[in-house]
């Protein structure tokens, strides 16, 4: 049986003081709650609850174990939240190549907003009117006003690319 799930069921039962209320809150059967608590007690080697037909109360060992269980569950939840936040951040280096007129007139403002939303992102913009070798120059995005020769590269119309860049900025905020 999954000990972490059993700890969560135990903490909920201790908070609610009832296996039935625990089953309702966790969308489980009362039997499933009882089984998880019984398994946990057997695994630990001590009783967590005093049981009567009307209510459950924590034993002294159960009270002590609850404090530790809550710390573990809270720390695990906090760690998961922090990791999710770290993974959702936009970080690293983005290399863009764009023609000079386009970069100054159309790209500067959207990139300014994008960078404000993602301070962990380093931007490397190459502003020139010559075609760049994306692989050789290690460029992530190249903006050009020309037909893409047959290759493995993907091209999008510039208006769509700008809209996508702006959407990314708005979704991240």
How would you characterize this protein structure?
The chain is an alpha/beta fold and 173 residues long. It has helices at residues 3-16, 19-26, 30-44, 60-88, 100-117, 158-172, and strands at residues 49-51, 56-58, 92-98, 121-127, 141-142. A three-stranded parallel beta sheet has the order 4-3-5. α1 packs across α2 (19-26) and α1 crosses α4. The chain has six helices and five strands; from the N terminus they run αααββαβαββα.
Helix percentage: 55-70%
Q: How many strands?
A: 5
Low-pLDDT runs: none
In round numbers, the mean pLDDT is 83
Spatial arrangement of strands, main beta sheet: 4-3-5
Profile the largest sheet. Answer: 3 strands, parallel
Range of strand content: 5-15%
Number of helices: 6
- Coarse morphology: rod-shaped
Structural class based on helices, strands and sheet pairing: alpha/beta
Q: How far apart are the first and last residues' alpha carbons, in Å?
A: 40 Å
- Rg from C-alpha positions? 28 Å
Query: What oligomerization state is this entry in?
Result: single chain
SSE sequence, one letter per element = HHHEEHEHEEH
Q: Could you give a short description of this structure?
A:
With 173 residues, this protein is α/β, with parallel strands linked by helices.
Give the arrangement of secondary structure elements:
Blueprint: H1 3-16, H2 19-26, H3 30-44, E1 49-51, E2 56-58, H4 60-88, E3 92-98, H5 100-117, E4 121-127, E5 141-142, H6 158-172
Parallel strand pairs: 3-4, 3-5
Antiparallel strand pairs: 1-2
Helix pairs in contact: 1-2, 1-3, 1-4, 2-3, 5-6
